[in-house]
Amino acid sequence: MLKINAERLWQSLMEMAKVGATTKGGVRRLALTSEDAAGRALFAAWCRDAGLTLSVDRVGNLFARRAGSETGAAAVASGSHLDTQPEGGRFDGVYGVLATLEVVRTLNDAGIVTRKPIEIAVWTNEEGARFTPAMLGSAAFTGVMPLETALAAHDADGVTVDDALHASGYQGERAVPGEPFDAYFEAHIEQGPVLEEAGVPVGVVTGGQAIRWLDVRVTGRAAHAGTTPMQYRKDALFGSAEMASELEAIAADFFPQGLATIGEWHIHNASRNTIAGELMFTVDLRNPSDAAIDEMEASVRTRFEATAARRGLTIDITQHWVSPSTPFDPACIEAVQSAVNELGYVNQRIVSGAGHDAIHLAKHCPTAMIFIPCVDGLSHNEAEDALPEDVARGADVLLHAMLARAGRA
Amino acid sequence: MLKINAERLWQSLMEMAKVGATTKGGVRRLALTSEDAAGRALFAAWCRDAGLTLSVDRVGNLFARRAGSETGAAAVASGSHLDTQPEGGRFDGVYGVLATLEVVRTLNDAGIVTRKPIEIAVWTNEEGARFTPAMLGSAAFTGVMPLETALAAHDADGVTVDDALHASGYQGERAVPGEPFDAYFEAHIEQGPVLEEAGVPVGVVTGGQAIRWLDVRVTGRAAHAGTTPMQYRKDALFGSAEMASELEAIAADFFPQGLATIGEWHIHNASRNTIAGELMFTVDLRNPSDAAIDEMEASVRTRFEATAARRGLTIDITQHWVSPSTPFDPACIEAVQSAVNELGYVNQRIVSGAGHDAIHLAKHCPTAMIFIPCVDGLSHNEAEDALPEDVARGADVLLHAMLARAGRA
């Protein structure tokens, strides 16, 4: 059975990791900086060597096309991003781009012509580390975000995406939103511990989970820690601590699908010897099921409000962000599943916990993803790593899923 | 039975409240500023009118002396402070100073000569709002803090106490540490809700409680809120929340004497969608008994460490500050109790929750305090208030306690 050239793929990954390399073994290639432009230039050179045709759209998304035999057929696309976190790793994003390049090179080596064209996509500003929000390029491409909004987004220095596109030479002509692809695949490191802990090298990703962000404000009464007897206190901190434990219990009620996190926690006018009068904390809820995340939020509200009332505290719970679940396309999932079955790789179904360009693409065209394990589940970290054999297996799966979708001429 | 002139005392309090008055009805008279100097000048003028002899020591503590009939006898002293919080009230500190002035005026009116002299003490920088630490003047007077250290303390602009004493004209000659008084009394608003809630107008203060400040650092593992299953998490926040609830339970075990507060809580690199990897929080423990506060701290350590171990977290608990309990002098407490009994005022024993100059004085000479209720237990607030009848009753008690100690000639 046809397989990609594992050594060539690994060498490409290591070569790309030199662009913006940090002293600690990571990569810093912030979106549309000179480092990002250098990474794109290296990728573009490899694409030209592979005989691909390059184009750039209005938000700088870069496409490399391998022609198919059928005139006018929509492309089977795959890719990810080349930008990184400020202290990022060598695999997040770049793996999906270079795995697709390796798919093309493998088809070239084997002399295979596909019916539908194949396109490699490099999405602009996926990380959101320079420009907010994350996944900006794919949001504009899929019409999730108006082009004007995307171009007006600015970094901490006030430089807009539009400015940065001109400065980096990536202000392209291709229309945004773009024409839907025949299908979109994306290979990515898992960025979590599930596959590694299970000893499974390939994850067949069935979609993205629902996310709900809540802001919780708890108000009691600030008072002197030394002069206020316990029975007269309205302590916003002890009340919030009880709510945090309730949130943990709610996650247990929805185990293993439900996730709950408190990431921020601010006491207003905090002082060591003052009882907290007002406290704000965030809640991050995740669940693959929209119905289940509704239940989780309802449970949070019921339990938190009861606790506040019992303690004489007032509470205000507001939705900060609501993102519904994103099921991937059954036919694309099946193409991935068939490929992995034929290759005989141990695999499991998995839901994407993080955001990816594929989550936007799924609203635009049939989409699926392939995950490979990352060492210690670590990502967004200079120590991010993946095993060469896992890197190769994921690209093999991508090759056969794309080939099945594109069809041999 | 002899009583103070309630109307005159109230008028003096309201007159002093005009010096540094804020638009919200409070007072801003930071230590050794022009406002503080103006307050001291007004007080000094009243003292001269009352025939008292003024002196100032090396840290600006101001004393006003009424002679006694016995040559060489140590003075029976009483006072407090005239400096305030940045948004302070009309009673905190100033009440103890002007109540003592009213005692002297009442003795003058009644033509009473005491055997021992009487001194009114105005302590420098009690609040700690301008110079750290609080109770600086009384600390230097009692030898708790070296004079050089006190003079070198500086405010946020780098101005030292020594500079400010010269600028305000309060660099005096009287030696520091000072000669011990025969006894020291201090009348003060309670700064808590106990007396008001109990409907008791006078508190006979038996001492200051022990205070212990702990720093707790909990370390887990920062990870992505979307990609990390609950069972793989080492969440420093959920662990700390459980510890907070344990702390609340420990306070309940030591109810009503034990107090416990978490005033600060900082997540390292906090982000809404990141599991807390490291968290620092403070613990403030109080108890009138040194043995009991030892037990409280031991219980904190045992329970927190067990919780951390069960959750796979590491924990580090360090003592930030240890202040033992300060029992007041039995004879001085009895002088206050006898006075209040003779006056027939409803009263109760109470432990001081806050710091006061009297806590330092207690290490230097026989000491006791008198508390009166403050409205809603509120202090360090522009809305701080006290009822005129309570203000008068506290001064009546002070009068008779001091008179008993000083003796009629």
Give the helix/strand layout.
2 copies of one chain form a homodimer.
Chain A: H1 6-17, H2 34-49, E1 53-56, E2 62-66, E3 76-80, H3 94-110, E4 118-122, H4 136-141, H5 147-152, H6 161-168, E5 183-189, H7 194-198, E6 202-208, E7 210-219, E8 223-224, H8 236-253, E9 259-261, E10 265-267, E11 274-275, E12 278-287, H9 290-311, E13 314-323, E14 326-327, H10 330-343, E15 347-352, H11 357-361, E16 367-372, H12 388-406
Parallel strand pairs in A: 3-4, 3-5, 5-16, 6-15
Antiparallel strand pairs in A: 1-2, 2-4, 6-14, 6-16, 7-12, 7-13, 8-11, 9-12, 10-12
Helix pairs in contact in A: 1-3, 1-12, 3-12, 8-9, 10-12
Domain Peptidase M20 dimerisation (chains A, B): 211-309
Protein name (chains A, B): N-carbamoyl-L-amino-acid hydrolase
Binding site for Zn(2+) 1 (chains A, B): 81, 92, 188
List the main descriptive attributes of the protein structure presented here.
five-stranded antiparallel sheet; 21% strand; homodimer; alpha+beta; Alpha-Beta Plaits; Aminopeptidase; 409 residues; 2 domains; nine-stranded mixed sheet
